[in-house]
Structures are given as C-alpha cells and as structure tokens.
Amino acid sequence: MQISKPTLGGLAATGMLWVSVGAVASKFASLGAQLVLGWVLSTEDFALYAIAISWSTIALALRNAGTQRFLIQKGNSYDEFASVCFKIALLFNGIGFVLLALAAPALSRLYDNQSLNAIIWVIALSLPLNTASLIFQAKLSSEMKFQKLTRINIWSALLRHGSIVAFALMGLGPISFVLPLILIAVFETVAGWYVVGAWPPNRRCCHI
Length: 208
Known about the structure:
With 208 residues, the chain is an all-alpha fold.
C-alpha cells in the first residue's frame, strides 16, 4: 500500500495554519508583556526605545542583504548557496553593526542620555549574532517545514516578551526592550542548528 505524498496545496494550507498559530501566540505574549511594561516602565523609557529603533532603521534595512529570501527562492539549491549567502549576510550585518556603533555616542550626546548609547549598542550587536539563525530559517521555509519553524518562532516570542518583563522587573529600564535581542539571537541560532542538523555547507564550486 502506497502512502500518498502531500500536495503543494496541502503543504501551503498547513503552512498557513502554523503561521497563523504562531502569529496568535506572539500577539498574546506581546499583549501580556505590554500590560506589565506599561505598569513598570516610565514614558521616558518607552520614548528612548522608540528613538533608538527610529535611528536604527537604516542599519536594520541592510540586515542579511536579502539573502534569506534568495535562499527560499532557490529551494533545493540551499546546499550550493548557503555558505556564500551566510558570508554576504554577515558582511552586511557587520556593516550595520559598525554604523550603529559609530552613531551611538553622537545620538547619546544629541539626546543627552547615556542609556541611549547602551540601547543602540545592543541593537547593533544583535545584527551579526542573528545571521546564522536567519539562514537556518530560510532552509526550513524552502523545505516547507512550517511546523518546526513555527515552534522556533513561538518559543522565540515567548522568550523575548518574557525576558523583557523580567528585565523590566529587575529595574533595568529602557534597555529591557533590547537585551532580549541577544537572547533571541543565541536561542534561534542554536534551535535552528539543532532542527536543520548541520551548519551551512561550504561549497567551493557549483554543479552544472
């Protein structure tokens, strides 16, 4: 007796279901965190975080240089392009890190707040640290392993919002918003490597 393989439409429907589940879980976690943060943190803390994110937009736009989308589109050619995409993404993320690191002291003086310097530095550091995890996520997406990808994203969302609350309750102020970025980068890299089972292979040549 042959077991029928899932159709493309079936995989897409399953993927949409898992993505929806992940989105709902993330929204509930975010709502719970915001309720606590609104009670613990001040208006100034929220304002500093908003300023840091606003000035980081340009550097964040460089993140991964589109390599994640490229790998998803290539599908079965992941092994062929993964290593070079990782290097390109790391290069652009490194540029983003340098831009933010250079801008941090100036912005701190501009707004006369030393906390802003630390917040932007943490955002900058998260860029290169998050490179490998996005390559792993591209592989899972290209292979339509949406259940595994969504599980990682759900746990990542819970870790992010839970740690924001924990840091805020510890009295860390506005930096509580960004410290979880480091935790998420480490978690998603380890989880992605565990699920995928291998580091991006280094292919020196392409098969014709």
